[in-house]
Amino acid sequence: MRLLLTGAGGQLGSEIARLVAGLNEKRARARVALLALDHSSLDVSSRDQVLSAVLSFEPDVVIHAAALTAVDSCELEPERAYSVNALGTRNVAEAARLNGSHLVYLSTDYVFDGRASRPYLEWDEPAPISVYGRSKLGGERELDGSHTVIRTAWVMGRTGSNMARTVLRLGRQTRGELRFVDDQRGSPTVASDLAAKVLELATARRPGLFHVTNQGEATWFEVARQIMAAAGLDKGRVVPISTGELDPPRPAARPANSVLENAALRLSGDELLPDWRESLDRLVAEIA
Q1: Which of 23, 102, 135, 234 counts the most CB atoms within 10 A of its CB?
Q2: For residue range 103-138, what is the model confidence (pLDDT) as tens digits?
Q3: Cα 219 from Cα 183, distance rounded (Å)
Q4: Please, are residues 75 and 18 in contact by the beta-carbon 8 Å criterion?
């Protein structure tokens, strides 16, 4: 299989590339030919660059993980957000269509407004409340039903800027209280677990929309306590605050509830990702 990966320098992209490399080492045949492109080698907002990359490599599958994911930056720079997340996805979708490639697009829990009193299903109507969420939903709408859309949430990995690495840094380098929001609830997801399921759905060319997260739900406060405990640090230093107490306030609104029910996987009989606590403990040990 020939696989083109955008966003290869990000948390998820780097895990997918690492996973493919590991699988290739174990195989004498049926290896995956991977073209892993980060932002420095492919600007997805450039139609010419995207068409050139896809049509010259001729991949069987394109995993489109490139995105502008800094939620507050998107709010402050909406044109840049739409250029990368929505128009960039249009460019990738066009190139995949011209080449006959199956396309897998990574989307987000932020397409929902957070007002539901239960986890969100794949068939619930999106209603984003931030530029980031609207631009990612714009990307979803560039695909047709023959391709794959994977929504995920609260991703943490070995690389990049994420909650696990931030809490570990603060826990080791500072003293006193660590204040984290306790009124935003979501689905914590470890990048290595997510990468394995993304690659599984991609190689099977499974069409449709899937929510893919680790099982269980939590607030950021609960996640921070779990990270501290897993690292052998004092979780009692973590104290809960409300979103309104953040100082300074964040430019972008966050959904109060963005828990994603992995209904499409579960109803199809697919294996679900492990509980978030189990996977987060493993991630903390790897980072440490």
Answers
A1: 135
A2: 999 999 999 999 999 999 999 999 999 999 999 999
A3: 7
A4: no
pLDDT given at position 181: 97
Catalytic residues: 132
CA distance linking residue 46 with residue 143, whole number of Å:
18
Q: Judge if the upstream peptide bond of residue 59 is cis by omega within 30 degrees of 0.
A: no
Closest CA to 120 of 273, 260, 281, 272: 260
Residue 244 CB burial class (10 angstroms; 0-12, 13-18, ≥19): exposed
User: Model-level pTM greater than 0.85?
Assistant: yes
**Selection from 273, 143, 258, 155 nearest residue 209 by Cα:** 143
CATH homologous superfamily for the domain 2-160+189-215+259-273: NAD(P)-binding Rossmann-like Domain (3.40.50.720)
| % pLDDT > 70, the chain | 100
Domain boundaries, the chain: 2-160+189-215+259-273
How far apart, in whole angstroms, are the C-alpha atoms of residue 52 and residue 269? Answer: 38
